[in-house]
Amino acid sequence: MLEKATLLIEWLCSLSECINVKTMKLYLVGTKCYQLDLGIDSTAFSDPQLERTLQGIKRDYNEPARRTRTALTRPHLLNLLNHLRIHDYNDTVMRAASRLAVVGFLQTGEFTYRALDLQMGPAFPNWFLTKSSIRLIQHDEHIALILPPSKTDLFRQGITLIIAGSHDEACPVGAMKQPLAMDTHSAETAPLFCVGTREQLPFTRQHVVEMLEELGTTAGLGQATWNGPSSRRRAAT
After folding, report:
1. By three-state DSSP, how is residue 113 classified?
2. What is the C-alpha separation between 193 and 200, in angstroms, rounded?
3. What is the C-alpha to C-alpha distance for residues 104 and 15, in angstroms, rounded to an integer?
4. 3-class DSSP assignment, residue 83
5. Total domain count for the chain?
6. Any alpha helices (H) in the chain, and if so which ranges?
7. Pair (56, 78) in one structural domain
8. Same domain? 211 vs 94
9. To the nearest 10°, the Cα dihedral for 203, 193, 102, 171?
10. In CATH, what number is assigned to the domain containing residue 78?
11. Could you tell me the residue range of the domain that residue 35 belongs to?
12. Is residue 67 one of the residues assigned to a domain?
């Protein structure tokens, strides 16, 4: 056991300049599970020297600085929306996506996608928002949004969110009507949000972040703190 623990400690020390302590612990858990599956003795992972080694590495090598993130609150959202062009398609889509994300507490990955994702073919609607994922109900006063993927929906049955209209500048219902009216030529299985009315390029995470940074700078809010999780972070706070 002592010899195995020593080998594990040497392994951790060799990784100390490449990865942080949190990742090291994940590596240890994965290696231990692999040995348990193979029926190999794993008592060395319980050696107290391992924990002391990890604490020493944590002291010697500072943890990487975390990025500062600004929550996309309602005042910030309204400020950003004021700098979007009214008749521009991409700005109209961004206006609708940002309002829907803030009101629906959506993560960036829940309303964006990559070009590679389109290669999934018929399986694409099972993982990403499409035109058929949203519909106006009750005389266009509410939105029914079906989220295909969710942490609490393991079998991909879909979770429906009912989002009410607020009838103000941040109203998601009014914002969603505009891109839906412009995209009448798109199929129901097409992505809900795209870049370019004719090109229909992927509405990627990078595109959203870059637009937030640009709008943040124009609005005098700064750009370094605007990133993907801003809408979900607003809901958490």
Report:
1. coil
2. 9
3. 41
4. coil
5. 2
6. 2-15, 21-38, 48-60, 74-81, 89-104, 172-182, 205-218, 230-236
7. no
8. yes
9. 140
10. 1.10.443.10
11. 2-60
12. no
* In contact, 69 and 233? CB cutoff 8 Å: yes
87 inside domain: yes
Helices vs strands, H then E, count in the chain: 8, 5
DSSP structural state of residue 122: G
Alpha carbon distance 205, 146 (integer Å): 20
Residue type, 48: P
Whether residue 68 is contained in a domain is answered as: no
For β-strands 159-164 and 134-137, DSSP reports them as unpaired
Residue 163, strand partner residues: 143
Please provide the DSSP assignment of 131-165 as one string: GGGEEEETTTTEEEEEES-BTTBTT---EEEEEE-
Residue 162 φ then ψ, to 5°? -100, 115
Spatial contact of 231 and 97, defined as CB atoms under 8 Å apart: no
For 104, the token pair is 């629906």
Residues 99 and 162 in one domain: yes
State the pTM of this model. Answer: 0.68
Residue 178 lies in a domain: yes
**Residues 126 and 185 both lie in one domain:** yes
Query: Do 29 and 111 reside in the same domain of the chain?
Result: no
Q: Examine the domain organization and report whether 33 and 123 are in the same domain.
A: no
pLDDT of the chain, 237 residues: tens digit per residue: 556 667 777 776 777 666 777 787 888 888 888 888 888 888 888 788 878 887 887 777 665 556 666 777 778 888 888 889 888 999 999 999 999 988 888 888 889 999 999 999 999 998 999 999 999 887 778 999 999 877 677 677 788 999 988 888 888 898 998 888 888 888 899 999 999 988 889 999 999 988 888 888 888 876 556 655 455 555 555
CA distances from 200 to 47, 51, 115, 183, 205 (A): 56, 52, 11, 10, 15
